[in-house]
Amino acid sequence: MTLGLAAASAMLVACNQTPNNNTAANVETAAGSPDIVYVNSDSLLANYDYFKDVRDRLQTKAEQKEKDLRAQAESFQKEVQRFQQNAAGMSQQQAESTQQRLMQKQQQLQALQQSSGNELVSEESEEMKKIYDRVEEYLKQLSNEEGYKMVLTYQRGNSAILYGDSTLDITEQVVAALNKTYESEKAETATEKKEEKK
Questions:
Q1: How far apart, in whole angstroms, are the C-alpha atoms of residue 1 and residue 179?
Q2: Can you list the domains of the chain with their CATH numbers?
């Protein structure tokens, strides 16, 4: 299970503040700022350090879980092979008991595989919500500062926006601000960890 850009982009729905009746015409505010701007969600996610860290962490976790499950499956397969080799020398009761134990173990492995997959999906969903919340919070703040009435999301090949003037694209500004905030948070967390070790 990996955190893909396509799945993540789908989560970044437009952060819409209540538009007035003139927003469709994209009338500029008195200060000269446009009412409507957009963010390229592909670029945002590709360049947002927090998203990249989350994606890498979840990918590493998924690979480790897959490795553990594969090791358990191989161990189980060896047990089955040993049973098949030794079955002829077993009593009927021993054979039936071993078969039952192996069946239970197989069911446990399948359940573990299922729960492991569900856990990763759930964690990915939670992390995407956090990313969405961070972006939404910043866009609300930016809209208040700049007077934007609506911030749209643009994704090449999957967007309601067929064309947008590049002057309305605030992606770089958003990415830079989000990364700056995230860097501060990481530095603060690192400082706190150092303090705890003392």
A1: 25
A2: 5-197 (3.30.910.20)
